[in-house]
Amino acid sequence: MEEVEETYIMIKPDGVQRGLVGEIISIFEKKGFKLTGLKLFQCPKELAEEHYKDLQSKSFFPKLIDYITSGPVVCMAWEGIGVVASARKLIGATNPLNAEPGTIRGDLAVQTGRNVVHGSDSPENGKREIDDNTALRLHFGVITPSVEIVI
Ligand code: RTP
Fold first, then answer.
1. What is the pLDDT of residues 58-68, one digit of tens each?
2. 117 contacts 12 by C-beta, under 8 angstroms
3. Where in the numbering of this chain does the Nucleoside diphosphate kinase-like domain appear (predicted)?
4. Residue 69 Cα, ligand 1 centroid: separation in angstroms?
5. Whether CATH 3.30.70.141 fits 4-142
6. Active site residues
């Protein structure tokens, strides 16, 4: 049976500036996932570098850090069965020009360097990215229990 997981979804500064927050949240809600943490956040340079540390050696790394720190982001924790892989499908390919229509990047973006949203690539990274974001995790205590899922 598939596991209930959690994933870290971040609406990047271009998504916030373009007024896409509601639309993106709605996509995950309509799919059936549960929002368990949410905050608007100006990411400091050090945290952006930590979040993207696996890409440190890439030539685009400095531009990526400038982009992520260029304005507020929306940090979210989402929970559900298979949410990590499903969220990546809903988000679409890294390069929006290769992303399928019907995905967030496929419908709402053009450039890799302005691709609107981030989603964890594994359940382990989902947990780590939510834990790194201490203030987000604090929200968990006040969330009401989920409605029982009957399959
Ligand atoms: P994300 O981590 O943001 O969800 O993106 P991803 O897994 O689809 O892609 P990844 O390879 O992890 O890259 C992270 C972010 O770096 C920027 N990027 N720019 N060639 C480039 O200019 C380039 N390649 C990647 C994108 O913002 C990408 O989402």
1. 999 999 999 99
2. yes
3. 4-137
4. 15
5. yes
6. 118
